[in-house]
Design a protein that fits this description.
By secondary structure, this protein is an alpha/beta fold. The chain folds into two domains: 113 residues, Rossmann fold (3-Layer(aba) Sandwich), CATH 3.40.50.2300; 65 residues. Helices cover 52% and strands 13% of the residues. Strands 2-1-3-4-5 form a five-stranded parallel sheet, with helices on both faces. α5 crosses α7 and α5 packs parallel to α8. It starts with 6 loop residues before the first strand and ends with a helix.
């Protein structure tokens, strides 16, 4: 995480949309815009605190951008902001949030704020939020019976339960806002 004003990297091959997201965020953050996956990889550096990545782009897809960020061990939160409905392939992707377009300005700002807040958490808590986001995304697209029959999904829910159990033991150490974020996720999961 960088010092001072947080930096947000907006990655989308639709220039008008990337510019719109940047305009929404530039009053509160330092915003860098990349109009495709290749430019995102070239632009990414340790100053980026949050990356908002479109999933489907020509040449280098959002998934590859996320893989690059994780392989290079950049310390930033990543949200996929995409028109692609979530499917089981998201389980292995290294993002922290999954947002389906269209997205409203206040929702985009909330995603950025949430990812910035999470950057202060330890790795275990960050993993918990990432799993909860993936589970919630899949629940919006898949029938419960189908989810229950998927081994990878079951492993995710088991791991999330383990992490939540561990968190319950340390909940007294979290701020009120952090607990509110977790409770919102629990409501989405229900």
């Amino acid at each position: 995480m960088s010092e001072g004003t947080p930096t947000v990297l907006v990655v989308d091959d639709e220039r008008d949309l990337a510019d719109l997201y940047a305009a929404w965020l530039e009053t509160d953050y330092e915003v860098v815009t990349a109009y495709g996956g290749e430019e995102a990889i070239d632009t990414m550096d340790r100053s980026v605190d949050v990356a908002l990545v479109d999933r489907l782009m020509p040449k280098i897809q959002g998934r590859e951008v996320v893989e690059h960020v994780r392989e290079e061990d950049y310390d930033c939160g990543i949200s996929m902001v995409t028109a692609v409905e979530p499917d089981y392939d998201i389980i292995e992707m290294g993002f922290d949030e999954y947002v389906v377009k269209p997205i409203r300005e206040e929702d985009l700002k909330e995603v950025v704020e949430s990812l910035l807040a999470r950057s202060e958490y330890d790795d275990q808590l960050q993993e918990m939020f990432s799993l909860a986001s993936k589970i919630a995304a899949l629940k919006t697209q898949k029938p419960a019976a189908e989810l229950e029959g998927n081994d990878e999904y079951e492993q995710m829910t088991t791991r999330l339960a383990e992490l939540r159990s561990e968190m319950d033991r340390t909940a007294g150490d979290l701020s009120e806002r952090d607990l509110e974020v977790e409770l919102r996720q629990l409501n989405v999961d229900s």
